[in-house]
Predict the 3D structure of the following.
Amino acid sequence: MNVFDIIGPIMVGPSSSHTAGAVRIGKIARVVAGGQPVAVSIELYGSFAQTYKGHGTDKAIIAGLLGMAPDDERIKDSLALARQAGMSFKFRKSGNQAVHPNTALISSVDQLGKKTIVQGSSVGGGRIVVNRINEINVKFKGDYYTLLIPHTDTPGVIAAVTKLLADHGINIAELNMYRSHRGGEAMMVIETDQAVKGGLVCSIEAVKTVKKAVLIEPIY
Amino acid sequence: MISYDSIQELADKATKKGKRISELVLEDQALHMEQSNDELFELMRKSLHVMAAAAEKGLTSQSLSASGLSGGDANKMKQAVDAGRALSGKVLSETLAKALAIAEVNACMGRIVAAPTAGSCGIIPALLLTLKEEHHLAEDQVVMSLFTAAGLGMVIAQKASVSGAEGGCQAECGSAAAMAAAAAVELMGGTPQMCAHACAMALKSVLGLVCDPVAGLVEVPCIKRNASGAANALVAAEMALAGIKSTIPVDEVIGAMKAVGDAMPKTLKETAEGGLADTPTAKKIAREIRR
């Protein structure tokens, strides 16, 4: 915690969890999808489902998908801006109580028809936890440089990737590995203390059995 | 390094070193964040500018929030002040107008600084910006006083909570008032010990205040509680500057606030199930909004 967690963040109202946090979830969904989707379908859970209109949670998520930051004054006009930009959207309220009270599941489709799913929860003060990427359950907060690396579960992949980071003087703050089953689809989530550059992302993608590397920069 | 687990310790340290609390906090945070004092100061200045812009916008705005539940009250208050119809002096009435203004801008999805939260964002800036205007203070002084507010807020957040969902409105608007009171005392030349007493007195006055937003929205009663929170801060600062002390030490008051928050039923902690949110009128409003 530092002084700007208490006097801050600078944000668009009315609620840090329902507005600022929702923008951040939308923005991460945009990055994971690899750019602006053409169609999104958003499922809202708990208090997000109950109060999203009054809190502008819908506008906030769409603003994030359009690439806006939590303090962007255009957030309140984001639905119209999305239509202008050719991004269609629909919202659905879910009665499922099992997930965290402030949760959104964002399914997006890009121009080529590729589908991406990102689920995130707003946990207070604008802070979030991303808990699902496509079919894999994950856990990261998006306040570090975060690398999402889908790969096939094979020996040596983690060593190869972490060696590349070490060679570039990048310290790992947290590393988690998730897999569907032994030898199956897997995902590494690496949060780093230093900035990760584009060139390094390409080198990571060249590692055998790594399918892709997505870099999420910290969102304030 | 400061541990931010005792306001008394912070005040004692400042007294011993002959410094203001804000100076200690700024120096400590610059080390902690690996940035220079100047860089941090300029970041805080940016926050003050956002606060001032929100106040200005809200004072003239007539627009309603998306729910239609709020809007235009700051303008009414400002008109009363300008027409000389306010019962209280300029400092209090202008403070009330600005607190309403910033909270209304927040409700209308305008740009604000959470201080410590979005729901309580009007309290600290309303009082500090009004003191700046009415006493012709330099902007740099006001920026510094925000470090005092933030430092004390860090202790409250660590030892209790600044979230309505965790501790009720006492933790949100109460903490904001306590932080504002201390910052105002420092801004007006009070000692670090006076800041601690002001913080304690403001928080004591709202122990038990519940978080009961109508229809779950940050509007009713939140916007008007920003005005009463700012008034509470001014009252506490006024008493502390006069040399009045809190009988219960500030850290014990924070402990009491935490205990009261823990004892508070869930229905009174931002769930919109109790208090004002459970009145017939509130339920009718909630039904209409959800339709």
Q: What stands out?
A: Chain B touches chain A through 53 residues (CB under 8 Å). Chain B is about 65% helix and 0% strand.
